[in-house]
Amino acid sequence: xxxxxxxxxxxxxxxxIDTMARRxxxxxxxxxxxxRLRAVGREDAAGAEGSVERPEQPTAEDITWADVVLFGTPxxxxxxxxxxxxxxxxxxxxxxxxxxxxxxxxxxxxxQTLHGGQEAVLLSLYTTIHHFGGIVVTxxxxxxxxxxxxxxxxVGHVTGAGNxxxxxxxxxxxxxxxxxxxxxxxRRLTS
Length: 191
Ligand SMILES: Cc1cc2nc3c(=O)[nH]c(=O)nc-3n(C[C@H](O)[C@H](O)[C@H](O)COP(=O)(O)O)c2cc1C
Hints:
Elements: E1 5-10, H1 16-30, E2 34-39, H2 60-65, E3 68-74, H3 82-89, H4 92-96, E4 104-111, H5 118-132, E5 135-136, H6 146-149, E6 155-158, H7 169-190
Parallel strand pairs: 1-2, 1-3, 3-4, 4-5, 4-6
Helix pairs in contact: 1-7
This protein binds flavin mononucleotide.
């Protein structure tokens, strides 16, 4: 089915969230979804190794267009990165018109340390999604991969000091499962 529209909006400073976002986009496209990959704050955002092209900046229309919206942000003291929050806060008119409701949403994050705020970041993001009237589709423990990466709230990658733990099979498996589940639920809602 080519009808599911997926928008991925993220902020990344040193490339981890960028790598995760591109994996989500590739997996969604492989499933026939139409994908918009959008990065905020690209003036200081480092791309993943080998990825020269920066995605466009998001607009409100990228959100209203989508059936599935995935937000990605590094942990910033256990919270959403300011640049992503500024974009989300710019959606007041669309929120007031009800244009952010009834979509599937999920989030992904990264932190340097194991307890660096990943759950807090995602729960904070979902507070906002509840205000949208969005449908939060978290992975839960709905797949064996979730007992490996251990995050039922979304997907989180631990980078280690100096980003010495690159995104690998465990995180990629969790990303694939999350976006597949989001698309599957969205198709059930819109069919
Ligand atoms: C201002 C600031 C605050 C941060 N706060 C935390 C934190 O509280 N816990 C943590 O583990 N990592 C923290 N980090 C590290 C980032 O979360 C980590 O480098 C990021 O997940 C990497 O994502 P990126 O490569 O996409 O930029 C912080 C980084 C910055 C710059």
